[in-house]
Amino acid sequence: MVSSSSFFFLFLLCSVLFLSDEATSLPELPNLTTLSFEEGYTQLFGDSNLLLHRDGRAVHLALDQRTALLGAGFASQDLYLHGFFSASIKLPSDYAAGVVVAFYMSNGDVFEKSHDELDFEFLGNIRGREWRVQTNVYGNGSTAVGREERYQLWFDPTEDYHQYSILWSHERIIFYIDNIPIREVVRTQAMGGDFPSKPMSLYATIWDGSTWATSGGRYKVNYKLAPYVADFADLILHGCAVDPSDHKTACQRSDAVLYDAITMSADQRTAMAKFRKKHMTYSYCHDRIRYPTPPPECMFVGPESQNFLASGDAKFNYRHRRGRRYGRSSVDAVL
Fold it and tell me: Signal peptide location in the record (predicted)?
């Protein structure tokens, strides 16, 4: 006969497993498949510092002294107006101060003074300190208002591939790490043109950010330790492609509705709230030094604000600022 305590334990275990499965599920989209490099991408710069592996389904980007000026990178062949974009990324190991790896969307080459942008930026560190991750959102050239958030990771991003994804629709933007939603930006009337609304390309780059990336530029890229290698795989471009000549999209109305219909379940919202409480180290919404009057979308941040200092830094970050060991890499470490 099963005891009441055993029954409770089994119930709790099943609940956690169910939550983990629901919280880490991909958006339900038709034909959500990975592409080879030739099917969807083109090289930007870095010449021989971009190499293809696994029959063109994995990309190797390297930064060394020869490519210090520009780095290495690739971009999608098409512009997209909304969609789901994803890649599995493995970051350079050991000393990587000053190194920046970016996975982002932008149209700065088309709209130089009014560009939109959605960023995942990975900031390298000195030996013994973990990589930091930040997300950012720009719309209509609103670079004067930085919307950065920074996070610690619950795994070592240099040991294996981890998935980073962006959902962009007319209504919202959701950033994911290993399919766990970590940030949502909902379009509001108050944001106006600051919400990205023009077609963008997808980019992946590695470059020298020595002037700012690590401790405000105190630690710089050491090219004696180069090359610094970032690997990309499981490349997904699922969006409304746009003709760059006239910016017309071939997407049907049903396609646009498909992306707008993607929201978060209650389990996903719970997972996101737990991630943010446990792993977010900075948020512009809580930075009263930089923004004495918060940007309009920050008026509704709720109880999250009690976890942050006036500088926008998380209170717990001061207790862990000297670095930490990585814990479990599973979703259990987040939930």
Answer: 1-25
DSSP for residue 217: G
Residue 129: CB atoms within 10 A of its CB come to 18
CA dist., res. 235 & res. 241, Å (int): 16
Q: Kindly report the number of other CB atoms within 10 A of residue 163's CB atom.
A: 18
Residue 297 and residue 183: Cα distance in Å, rounded?
13
pLDDT at 6 (0 to 100) = 42
In 3D, which of 137, 132, 126, 75 has the Cα closest to residue 101?
132
Active-site pick, 28, 112, 121, 304? 121
- Quick one: pLDDT at residue 62? 98
Write down the catalytic residue from 38, 117, 171, 297. Answer: 117
Q: 270: part of which helix (H) or strand (E)?
A: helix 266-279
- Does 330 fall in a domain? no
pLDDT for res 12? 34
For the chain (335 residues), the mean pLDDT of every run of 10, in chain order, is: 42 40 66 92 96 97 95 96 96 96 95 91 95 94 84 96 97 96 93 90 97 95 97 96 76 77 93 94 94 85 83 76 53 61
Contacts of 69 (CB under 8 A, 6+ apart): 208
The answer to whether 117 is a known catalytic residue is: yes
- What is the number of structural domains in the chain? 1
Output the pLDDT for position 291: 93
Output the domain CATH number for residue 147.
Answer: 2.60.120.200
Helix (H, G, I), strand (E, B) or coil at 246: coil
Q: Domain containing 242: what range?
A: 29-263
Peptide bond into 30 cis (omega under 30): no
Q: Pick from 298, 273, 275: which is nearest to 285 by CA? A: 298
Q: How, if at all, do strands 180-186 and 311-313 pair?
A: unpaired
CB 308 within 8 A of CB 286: yes
- Phi, psi values for residue 323, rounded to 5°: 100, 170
| 9 is a domain residue | no
Write down the residue that tokens 């050239």 correspond to. Answer: 141
